[in-house]
Amino acid sequence: MRDAKYRYEESLKSPLSDELVNTCLLRPVAGQITRILYPTRITPNGVTAASLLARTALASDS
Fold first, then answer.
1. What are the C-alpha distances in Å from 53 to residues 11, 45, 60?
2. Cβ distance 8 to 27 under 8 Å?
3. C-alpha distance from residue 12 to each of 4, 5, 6, 29 (Å)
4. H/E/C letters for each residue in the chain?
5. Using CA atoms, how far apart are residues 23 and 2, in angstroms rounded to an integer?
6. 15 Rama sector, left if φ>0, alpha if ψ -120 to 50, beta otherwise
7. Taking the CA atoms of the chain, what radius of gyration do you get in angstroms?
8. Distance of CA 39 to CAs 5, 11, 15, 35, 51, Å?
9. Greatest CA separation found in the chain?
10. What is the pLDDT of residues 1-36, one digit of tens each?
């Protein structure tokens, strides 16, 4: 079992180099997804593959 936990504060860069949208929207959403997927066996590459499949499916419907 892994002992590491995602900590939002530790993921932040310096306020001068991080954009507002990234700090206020993208990082909190990514943190929630990380908390959900971290205890599973899903890898980052698996998340990327699933997003590509979802985008392809949505694009083919248009």
1. 28, 12, 11
2. yes
3. 17, 15, 12, 13
4. CCCCCCCHHHHCCCCCCCCHHHHHHHHHHHHHHHHHHCCCCCCHHHHHHHHHHHHHHHHHHC
5. 26
6. alpha
7. 15
8. 10, 18, 30, 8, 19
9. 44
10. 455 566 766 766 666 666 777 778 888 888 888 889
Q: What's at 6, amino acid-wise?
A: Y
For the record, the structure tokens of 35 come out as: 């908390």
* Residue located via tokens 């939002």: 8
- pLDDT digits over 41-61, tens only? 999 999 999 999 999 998 887
